[in-house]
């Protein structure tokens, strides 16, 4: 099967490309490289020993995207392309709606035109909004989201469900990621945030490598075991394998299905810092600061549905996440440059 990955050169897309190639799928990547590097393609090929077809296109550009479908007999799509910076989405919401929703519409229209009937969508646990209960299960209510980035994920889920209701041949698997961290064990691909990282693990690894002086721990007065925020961190390689499972599931089970991709385990900010220090034998200076606006105390998945229906379960540990993050950061202090 030949699978198109929109945004396939990004953090999660690149790891998914590796797992798809390892599982015997052919991979076509469409990426505008606005937040990724062409070097990632070489790395994917190095890890897998397989070739990837790459198109430097904006997925919202209908003519360019049609060219990709004309050149390749695409059997299914995994849709990662989109802007993803929470803070930026608050400042330029219209650009987020235009880009994330626009490229999804173009993609769905092009898929219909070319008779491509399966889409896996890169959604987020952020669609649950403030958790009403924990752990979060797929049948719990969604929204409202605390930022436009999250709203684009929620709206795109709805758009895909509406498209699938109207066109019965369309199968969709919506994957709600919890907090992806870590990097491929080879140390060749990983996450490279633009500028100062917003997310915890990239921030810690940049402190470790000496690019940042210390970590700010955003609040230690939450109603959690040590007062710091609790999240469900999932190794990006487990997450990538979740996409392979979702594709195999979708091929056999037409219709629309939603899955959480998490471990079901919540770790606090200090759990992460302590594990990173212990596993990598490196100091992470930190200070406790005020809470970050919009943050919630706790968020973790009920991961049972993905295990029951897709036979997928996260297998890597917090130690693996910390070790692999550090290997990637240490070997590539300036990312793919
Ligand atoms: C954030 C986004 C979420 C997005 C996800 C992608 C917000 C409010 N939410 O989730 O929409 O889907 O990233 O991975 O931005 N922390 C610190 N110091 C830091 C950074 C983070 O203490 O420098 C703490 C946070 O307060 C939180 C935890 O670490 O308790 C995780 O934060 P982060 O990695 O930013 O992820 P989320 O906020 O869960």
Structure description:
The structure is a single chain. A seven-stranded parallel beta sheet has the order 3-2-1-4-5-6-11, sandwiched between helices. The protein is an alpha/beta fold. The two termini are 32 Å apart. The mean pLDDT is 97. Helix 9 (269-280) packs across helix 11. It has helices spanning 11-22, 39-48, 62-71, 86-91, 93-113, 148-166, 200-208, 236-252, 269-280, 304-310, 318-331, and strands spanning 2-6, 26-31, 53-56, 76-79, 118-124, 171-177, 179-181, 215-218, 230-231, 233-235, 256-261, 267-268, 286-289, 298-299. It is globular and about 55 Å long. Helix content is 41%, strand content 18%. Bound molecules: uridine-diphosphate-N-acetylglucosamine. Residues 86, 124, 126, 150, 179, 198-200, 203, 215-218, 229, 231, 269, 292, 294-295 line the site of uridine-diphosphate-N-acetylglucosamine.
* Residue fraction in strands: 15-25%
Span from first to last CA? Answer: 32 Å
Sheet of most strands: 7 strands, parallel
Number of separate strands = 14
Task: Note the total helix count.
Answer: 11
Global shape: globular
Mean pLDDT: 97
Helix content: 40-55%
* SS class: alpha/beta
Taking all Cα atoms into account, the compactness measure Rg is: 19 Å
List strands and helices in order, with pairings.
Blueprint: E1 2-6, H1 11-22, E2 26-31, H2 39-48, E3 53-56, H3 62-71, E4 76-79, H4 86-91, H5 93-113, E5 118-124, H6 148-166, E6 171-177, E7 179-181, H7 200-208, E8 215-218, E9 230-231, E10 233-235, H8 236-252, E11 256-261, E12 267-268, H9 269-280, E13 286-289, E14 298-299, H10 304-310, H11 318-331
Parallel strand pairs: 1-2, 1-4, 2-3, 4-5, 5-6, 6-11, 7-10, 8-13, 9-14
Antiparallel strand pairs: 9-12
Bound molecules: uridine-diphosphate-N-acetylglucosamine.
Uridine-diphosphate-N-acetylglucosamine (UD1) is lined by residues 86, 124, 126, 150, 179, 198-200, 203, 215-218, 229, 231, 269, 292, 294-295.
């Amino acid at each position: 099967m030949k699978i198109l990955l929109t945004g396939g050169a990004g953090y999660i897309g690149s790891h998914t490309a590796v797992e798809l190639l390892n599982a015997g799928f052919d991979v076509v990547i469409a990426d505008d490289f606005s937040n990724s590097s062409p070097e990632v393609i070489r790395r994917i090929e190095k890890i897998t020993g397989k070739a990837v077809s790459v198109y430097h296109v904006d997925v919202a550009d209908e003519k360019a995207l049609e060219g990709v479908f004309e050149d390749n007999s695409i059997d299914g799509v995994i849709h990662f392309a989109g802007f993803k910076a929470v803070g930026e989405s608050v400042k330029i919401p219209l650009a987020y709606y235009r880009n994330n929703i626009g490229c999804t519409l173009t993609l769905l229209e092009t898929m219909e035109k070319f008779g491509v009937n399966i889409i896996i969508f890169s959604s987020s646990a952020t669609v649950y909004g403030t958790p009403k209960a924990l752990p979060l299960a797929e049948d719990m209510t969604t929204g409202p989201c605390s930022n436009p980035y999250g709203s684009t994920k929620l709206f795109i889920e709805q758009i895909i469900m509406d498209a699938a209701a109207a066109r019965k041949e369309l199968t969709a698997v919506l994957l709600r990621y919890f907090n992806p961290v870590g990097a491929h064990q080879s140390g060749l691909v990983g996450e490279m945030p633009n500028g100062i990282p917003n997310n915890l693990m990239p921030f810690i690894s940049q402190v470790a490598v000496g690019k940042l002086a210390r970590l700010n721990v955003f609040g230690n007065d939450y109603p959690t075991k040590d007062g710091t925020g609790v999240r469900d961190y999932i190794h990006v390689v487990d997450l990538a394998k979740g996409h392979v499972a979702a594709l195999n599931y979708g091929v056999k089970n037409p219709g629309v299905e939603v899955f959480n991709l998490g471990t079901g385990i919540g770790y606090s900010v200090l759990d992460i810092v302590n594990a990173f220090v212990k596993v990598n034998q490196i100091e992470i200076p930190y200070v406790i600061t005020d809470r970050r606006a919009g943050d919630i105390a706790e968020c973790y998945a009920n991961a049972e549905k993905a295990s029951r229906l897709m036979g997928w379960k996260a297998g890597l540990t917090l130690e693996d996440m910390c070790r692999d993050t550090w290997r990637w950061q240490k070997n590539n202090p300036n990312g793919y440059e």
